[in-house]
């Protein structure tokens, strides 16, 4: 199954072209482009501007740029240029380049402070957990279709909110301690008293 049309120099090869493909298809495209170029060079070929290997490598560049943006929310070229500028400046100054990090998109929401959960009644806690779980469900569908780093980061925060609300509710309903919760879980499983780790 050919996932990509054959790229030619007449095609408009840009980021928008590659944004319509899934991550797996983009990764395969990158692998195939590099593999073909390496095999061509190993066979004594020389890559020249606008030949098939050159065009495939341009495609791999754009595919990687799309993948980077989906995973981090950032622009791979800008991050790469920034890193190169720092490395160049340090090398010219005779210094060791610092550890450089890749910026990652931040969540659209912040975790709810645990104290806020303590102030809620049982029904309110259950509703808060349900609402955050619903955001995860909806966000998972959106992430699958949009591959958006900010949505993925938001899902992680909502998962924290669900866990915090459910933990508070279960502790409250079971007696207030992990030991009390372990006794109830043990009864449900038909085992003796166990301490949850």
Describe this structure in words.
The structure is a single chain. With about 200 residues, the protein is mostly helical. Among the domains are: about 15-75; about 115-190. It is built from eight helices and no strands. It has helices at about 15-20, 25-40, 50-70, 75-90, 115-120, 120-145, 150-175, 180-190. The radius of gyration is 25 Å and the shape is elongated.
Fold topology:
Elements (H helix, E strand, L loop, with lengths): L14 H4 L4 H20 L9 H21 L3 H17 L21 H5 L3 H25 L2 H26 L3 H12 L8
Helix pairs in contact: 2-3, 6-7
Keywords summarizing the entry:
single chain, 197 residues, 8 helices, 0% strand, mainly alpha
Q: How would you sum up the global shape?
A: elongated
The level of helicity is: 55-70%
Distance between the termini: 49 Å
Mean pLDDT across all residues, rounded?
84
Structural class: mainly alpha
Strand fraction band? under 5%
Biggest sheet descriptor: none
| Rg over CA atoms | 25 Å
Concise structural overview:
The protein has 197 residues and is mostly helical.
């Amino acid at each position: 199954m050919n996932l990509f049309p054959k790229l030619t120099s007449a095609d408009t090869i840009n980021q928008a072209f590659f944004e319509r493909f899934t991550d797996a298809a983009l990764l395969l495209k990158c692998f195939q482009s590099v593999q073909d170029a390496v095999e061509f060079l190993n066979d004594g070929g020389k890559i020249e501007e606008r030949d098939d290997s050159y065009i495939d490598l341009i495609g791999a560049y754009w595919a990687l740029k799309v993948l980077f943006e989906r995973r981090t929310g950032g622009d791979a070229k800008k991050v790469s240029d920034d890193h190169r500028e720092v490395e160049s400046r340090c090398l010219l100054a005779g210094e060791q380049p610092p550890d450089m990090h890749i910026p990652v998109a931040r969540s659209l929401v912040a975790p709810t402070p645990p104290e806020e959960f303590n102030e809620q009644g049982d029904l309110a806690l259950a509703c808060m957990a349900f609402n955050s779980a619903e955001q995860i469900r909806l966000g998972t569908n959106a992430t699958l279709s949009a591959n958006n780093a900010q949505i993925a980061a938001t899902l992680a925060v909502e998962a924290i909110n669900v866990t915090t609300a459910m933990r508070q509710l279960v502790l409250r309903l079971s007696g207030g301690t992990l030991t009390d919760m372990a006794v109830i879980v043990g009864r449900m499983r038909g085992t003796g008293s166990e301490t949850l780790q």
